[in-house]
Amino acid sequence: MNEPPGQHGRIWPTASPGSALPEGVAPLTDDLPVHQGPSTVSPPHFWTRKGSPGHGVEPYAMLFRDEDLPDALGRQSVRRGGRWPWFLAAALVAVVCAVSAVVAGVRVFAEVQRKPTPTEVLRAADKEIGRRWQTWPAGKIFPETLDYGVHQGVREKARRVGISPDQECSKAVDPSLLSDLRERGCLGILRATYLDALQGLVVTIGVAAFPDDESAVAASALFPGGPIPGLRPLAFPGTVTARFKPESRQAASVWQLGPYVVASTVGPVDGRPARVPERRPTHYQLAPEMAQQVLRVLTHRGVPDCGTKEWTC
User: Fold this and answer.
1) By 3-state DSSP, what share of the chain in percent is helix, strand and coil, each rounded to 5?
2) pLDDT, mean of residues 37-61
């Protein structure tokens, strides 16, 4: 049969090639329809046996277009082979993520288990010092007694009368000084009052806390050389300190170390106003000495001890 190029079909018989057509089988003619659809595998055309029993359809051979066979097989091969690159890429990403997770876990474990460096130890100690005004018991900041010298190496003890429960900066200093201290970041002021060994002088000590050393240095420069303006006296009714009023302040001192400013003020227990000029200025030297003791203990840098409640290691 002479058919135009691209329009001829190929017969795939179910019998062996070259065998004669069975009786009753119609020969293939030129008018046999050929599928002209898109370039996919053309649906088969059945060459049927005439007069077959049953439903009358018995497939004998299927007809495909020649150009459909390579295209269909090729596309099927590409589709099947195209899944592998995506599978390999996904597997590679999973492996990379797993390795990254393992490496990160090892680093975190090593970081947790390692010992702190000297710089980290000092930094932790400084942070702990800055929180002591809040974390330490008031009795540790203001001990029950404070030593002071009188003359010729003789030491006496001033005894604590009471500690103020109020920590607000506004209650502890004169109003003219308050705004400047707040500008420097005053966090709070703790106060306690002591009575000297002879029970003739009253000393109030105040601990002012600031965010950092620089703020504390700037705040300490705001206190004048005299007692006014400055730390307000802390009197306790029903005790010998009850008459210690703001006008009774005779002398004052200011000390700074780390994020703290420790101030003191002193006056007589009878509450008499200050004399100008004071005839016995050395009589009140116990106050600055007591204030220095409080500041020295408060800012002492200890080695972190992970076995105590004060440290978290």
Assistant:
1) 35, 20, 45
2) 46
Q: Give the Å distances, CA to CA, from 69 to 33, 40, 42, 174.
A: 17, 8, 9, 102
Q: Which of 31-35, 74-78, 101-105 has the highest mean pLDDT?
A: 101-105
Sheet hosting strand 201-209, strand order edge to edge: 145-149, 155-163, 188-195, 201-209, 260-268, 251-257
Give the closest residue to 194 by CA, choosing from 186, 179, 205: 205
Query: What does each C-alpha distance from 58 to 27, 47, 61, 62, 100 come to in angstroms?
Result: 15, 8, 9, 11, 63
- pTM, to two decimals: 0.63
Find the DSSP H helices in 231-304. Answer: 286-298
SS (H, E, C) 18-60: CCCCCCCECCCCCCCCCCCCCCCCCCCEEEEECCCCCCCCCEE
Cα pseudo-dihedral 267, 158, 190, 162, rounded to 10: -90
For residues 177 and 180, what is the distance between their CA atoms, to the nearest angstrom? 6
Of 50-64, 101-115, 202-216, which range is least confident? Answer: 50-64
Average pLDDT over residues 204-225: 96
